[in-house]
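hey m, so remember when u said the tokens were messed up on ur end? i reran from scratch. heres the input so u can diff it against urs
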Amino acid sequence: MLRWTVIFLIVAIIAGVLGFGGIAAGAAGIAKILFFVFLVLFVLSLISGRVGRS
């Protein structure tokens, strides 16, 4: 249990540093770009999976 407490404490500290610092806007922009990249890759993998089965 102590291990999980330490892990969540570290995650909370990192989130606080990123959230209260100026990095949050940049990280949000990068996250939006990555979201759309992975969304396109997901759709392409679905299409290629359907074509491969036929």
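this time it looks ok to me. The CA atoms of residues 28 and 34 lie 10 Å apart. if urs says something different then somethings off w ur setup not the seq
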